[in-house]
Specification:
It contains 15 helices and 26 strands. Helix 14 runs antiparallel to helix 15. It is globular, with a radius of gyration of 29 Å.
Length: 555
């Protein structure tokens, strides 16, 4: 047996394990690597000022010569959002279905990237990438053109479900290709990596079509304008808004940058079925009676800069809400977003609009498989090994438990975190090490230049404020020429805290005298003493710990 046959297959998740979003997995055999998905996630509350979070690709940068391409399951941000950032560092091809690539091209224009690296693939048509044979398999999700991947490797077939649900009445008519998954199961599947997002939900997910029935009912009863907020990328939901509007002869105006971009791409590529004249410019809404207008908008998660939030705050330039309007929020809060969503709901309540959301009506269904659907996939595929993915730690453990309930041996199931290196051959699976994996923070145009130290400083500033101590010292005799002047930002209101600021100034003066008596002229030591003495004084007086920034100038 040659050395080539003794290689082990490596599967290394760089994102999507023990978290929701930022999905990215490395599949490696010998001198070949392919990357499944390349997503982003949104920052936690403590990531102050951060726009998005992308995976750490240190491992890929070290192995760039092995990479044969990125393959994408579908066009949601948590699966494609990091592609432009990765391609700025790695010159590699990207494979995806037509709509997925269409959404990416929009991003490429923003990032000034050449779209020539984008290669279109279709469900059922395999593509050879190094030693890997990649077959896209039709999947159902909340966006058209979603696929799972069956990847044939020298040691066996690996199946990545991607995000999916089993919808027997999908909006676009593209049923999940269960017969193909069953056929792959008959041929023999080495490992399954399956979506764990909804493992906690019993039974079966509800078909997307049920939302359409609710829309038809709500749209029919609306006596004035309807404002519908949903995810821009949930194109099946967008289609149902348009269909319900057309049923009652209403016009649809679109608000929110991501909604405008996504709907534009979907229209250009023929993924939305819209009658001529249905979609109008937001500037034209005043030309029609209120009961003939539907405004389709972003902001279902209460995002601060989104169109719905601006409407709720009364500072949207085109739309001013009134008590006659109806706002329909067709999404459920992503874990961690509940507070921002309820803030928007409260502001809408103050305006007096009628609000309809998931707790009150069937205006949202999940795009991810429930427990019984996951059982069906496991039963059809019958993998030898199983790695649960796309979920927080509790989701992954519950999914592992489900596999055991279906008869899989516990030793054939492996749990891991981002960076875990799983090694497989025909007969075994093991964890063999850890690859670099973590969060790269994007703030404006800066990628990765904000780390833990900067975040800690931002948190400190946001909680306790800043005091700057400005002193001018003579270069010749080291005496104080001017100052100390004390400047407060976000600490106390200076006009009402004059005594405290005067006392703080006295503390700094005493520190300077003490240092002069000890012949301390080194700036570093001087700053340390000022910071230390002032910190002790302020904490003693008002139990606060502002950031203290001594600034020393020489003249």
């Amino acid at each position: 047996m040659g050395k080539r046959n003794k290689e082990k297959l490596k599967i290394i998740p760089l994102g999507g394990l023990a978290e929701i979003g930022k999905n990215m997995t490395v599949v490696e055999y010998g001198n070949d690597i392919i990357i499944v998905d390349c997503g982003l996630t949104f920052p936690d509350e403590d990531m102050l000022g951060i726009d998005i979070v992308i995976p750490d690709i240190t491992y890929l940068e070290k192995n760039v010569n092995k990479i044969r391409g990125i393959i994408l399951t579908h066009g949601h941000e948590d699966h494609i959002g990091a592609v432009p950032y990765v391609l700025k560092k790695l010159n590699i091809p990207v494979y995806g279905t037509r709509l997925t690539l269409g959404l990416l091209k929009n991003k490429f224009q923003e990032h000034k990237l050449n779209p020539n690296c984008l290669k279109e693939i279709q469900a059922g048509q395999s593509v050879r990438l190094g030693v890997f044979n990649v077959e896209p398999v039709q999947a159902s999700h909340s966006i058209p053109d979603s696929v799972s991947f069956a990847i044939k490797t020298p040691v066996g077939t690996i199946i990545f479900t991607g995000d999916f649900k089993i919808d027997y009445t999908p909006i676009d008519g593209d049923l999940m290709d269960l017969p193909r998954l069953a056929a792959l199961g008959d041929e023999g599947v080495l490992a399954l990596l399956a979506d764990s997002t909804n493992i906690e939900r019993e039974g079966y997910s509800v078909s997307e079509r049920t939302v359409g029935e609710t829309f038809k009912d709500v749209f029919g009863r609306a006596e004035s304008r309807l404002i519908v907020a949903t995810f821009a990328s949930n194109l099946h939901r967008v289609q149902q808004v348009i269909t319900a509007a057309e049923y009652y002869g209403k016009k649809v105006a679109i608000s929110g940058r991501s909604m405008i971009n996504t709907v534009g791409v979907a229209l250009d590529l023929g993924y939305l079925n819209v009658k001529k004249g249905t979609i109008i410019d937001i500037n034209e809404i005043r030309k029609y009676p209120g009961d003939k207008i539907v405004i389709l908008t972003t902001g279902s998660q209460g995002e601060p800069m989104s169109a719905l939030t601006r409407m709720a705050n009364g500072d949207h330039r085109k739309v001013q809400l009134s008590p006659e309007d109806t706002v329909l929020i067709s999404a459920s809060p992503i874990p961690g977003n509940e507070k921002t969503v309820f803030n928007v709901l409260n502001k809408l309540t103050e305006i007096g609009v009628k609000i309809i959301y998931q707790a009150l009506a069937d205006v949202h269904v999940s795009g991810h498989a429930f427990k019984e659907e996951l059982k069906l996939i496991h039963t059809l595929v019958r993998p030898k090994f199983f790695i649960p993915v796309h979920g927080e730690q509790r989701h992954l453990k519950l999914h592992a438990k489900l596999a055991m309930e279906l008869g899989m041996d516990e030793k054939n199931i492996k749990l891991g975190n981002n960076g875990t290196v799983f090694e497989l051959d025909e007969n075994s699976i093991a964890v063999s090490g850890i690859a670099p994996a973590g969060n790269v923070l994007v703030d404006g145009l800066g990628v990765g230049d904000v780390g833990n130290v900067v975040l800690r400083d931002r948190k400190h500033l946001s909680e306790d404020g800043l005091i700057a101590v400005v002193i001018t010292i003579s270069k010749q005799d080291k005496h104080v020429v001017a100052g100390p002047d004390i400047i407060s930002r976000g600490f106390v209101y200076v006009k009402e805290s004059g005594d405290l600021m005067d006392d703080a100034k006295n503390v700094v003066e005493k520190t300077l005298k003490k240092c002069r008596s000890k012949n301390i002229s080194d700036w570093g030591t001087l700053k340390y003493n000022i910071r230390d003495d002032l910190k002790s004084f302020i904490y003693h007086e008002i139990k606060r710990n502002p950031m203290i920034l001594p600034i020393i100038m020489e003249v």
